[in-house]
DUF5808 domain-containing protein
Amino acid sequence: MKTRQDKQMLDAMRKNPDNWKGIFYYNRQDPRLVVPKLYPYFGYTLNFASGYVYVFLALLILIVLASEFLF
C-alpha cells in the first residue's frame, strides 16, 4: 500500500518540468508506466523512460495492423 509520502513524492516527480520533454513524460526514477499529465484534467500519458512502454506500443501497433490485414 502506498503511503501518503510516496504519493507526494510521485506527484512531485510529475510536476517537475525537467521530467517533461515537450508533451512526453520521461523519468527513469518513476516506476509508473501510466502517469497523470502535467495538468491532470487533460488525462494520462506514458512514462517513455520505461522500456515496457515501447513493448506496449509495439504490441498495440501489431494488433492494429493484424486487424487491418487479417480481418
About this structure: Residues 4-70 form one domain. The first helix runs from residue 4 to 15.
